[in-house]
Amino acid sequence: ATPMSIMVGIGRGAREGVLIKDAQVLETMEKVDTIVVDKTGTLTEGRPRVVDVVAVEGSSEEDLLAQAAAAESVSEHPLARAIVDAAKERELSVTKATDFQSTTGGGIEAQVDGRHIRVGKQDFMANNGVQVPEEIAKKSRAMQSEGRTVVFVAAEENLLGMIAIADPIKQTTPATIARLHELGLKLVMLTGDAQATAQAVASELGIDDFTAGVSPEDKHNYVQDLRKQGRIVAMAGDGINDAPALAAADVGIAMGTGSDVAIESAGVTLVGGDLRGVVKAAALSRATMTNIR
Ligand code: ADP
Ligand code: MG
């Protein structure tokens, strides 16, 4: 039979916005020594907005943004919403796209006004034969070192330019990270975003260990490797791209603000995406298990 105090612990978690699936999750949480976190939507608000548009010579900012918005209009990625909103704000006319295709953790492509438009990270461009001129690459690195996410836009194999997107760090993130460190937990950030962007966010938050440019599969493998090394891993994430890693962790922690797939893959859901719930879950599991013994 399930001990009474576990039920009480789960109940208390629920009242504090930490939804724990079952007794097993609470028991495992106590043993966790490593927390893996996703960046976008987990450490950051995940409500990004466009802060800069840079067009290459021969292309205009308006055209680039309008094409990108058309291609992104079907995507549910937070970056897609930022691009669509920016086009709306500038009152650009955005046509309908067809043949939409998404490469998770890389970018998207679609047919817009007879042109094949791609929007995504530099690797995604390279994989599709789109060259990024050094001058643009340099500008993108400068923006990334300020924590911006940069996506590139191309028509066929020609680069049109890039879009810089800012996604503020959640207000609750710095204190949460400090508390997790105090609890003696090892913290690792994994992100599909670029190295320079990840570096900027990691140093701002004092996260000592991170890996950038990872695919959803990489995130999953990374979690699995840590477990093979004998670590007990909780993984916190919000996106479809995090779902495999959440499922592979000893404890998956989904942001309640994230995708349904992430929530279904997790043992813990944080209401409102409040990251302080990670600390609460750790503290609650320790208190509950001490009570039982
Ligand atoms: P994270 O791991 O930080 O949550 P993702 O794995 O979702 O990020 O995405 C990684 C990168 O892939 C993004 O930083 C972006 O460059 C690119 N990307 C993913 N989806 C899109 C999209 N819909 N439009 C443009 N770029 C995208
Ligand atoms: Mg994410």
Beta-strand content bin: 15-25%
| N-to-C SSE string, H for helix and E for strand | HEHEHEHHEEEHHEEHEHEHEHEHEH
Tell me the radius of gyration. 20 Å
Strand order of the largest sheet: 1-13-12-11-2-9-10
Described by the principal axes of the CA atoms, the overall outline is: elongated
Provide the list of bound ligands, each named once: adenosine-5'-diphosphate, magnesium ion
Looking at CATH, which topology of the largest domain would you report?
A: Rossmann fold
Structural class: alpha/beta
**CATH top level assignment of the largest domain:** Alpha Beta
The helicity comes to 40-55%
DSSP summary, beta strand count: 13
What does this structure look like?
This protein has helices spanning 4-15, 23-31, 39-43, 61-72, 78-89, 122-127, 134-144, 173-182, 195-205, 216-228, 243-248, 260-265, 276-292, and strands at 18-20, 34-38, 49-55, 97-103, 107-112, 115-120, 149-155, 158-166, 186-190, 209-211, 233-237, 251-255, 268-270. By secondary structure, it is an alpha/beta fold. It has 2 domains: 4-44 and 169-292, HAD superfamily/HAD-like (Rossmann fold); 49-166, 3-Layer(aba) Sandwich (Calcium-transporting ATPase, cytoplasmic domain N), CATH 3.40.1110.10. The strands form 2 sheets. Strands 1-13-12-11-2-9-10 form a 7-stranded mixed β-sheet, with helices on both faces. Strands 3-8-7-6-5-4 form a 6-stranded antiparallel β-sheet. Strand 4 and strand 5 form a beta hairpin. It is elongated and about 70 Å long. The two termini are 15 Å apart. The model has no long low-confidence stretch (mean pLDDT 94). Bound molecules: adenosine-5'-diphosphate and magnesium ion (MG). Magnesium ion is lined by residues 38, 40-42, 237-239, 242. Residues 38, 40-42, 237-239, 242 line the site of magnesium ion (MG).
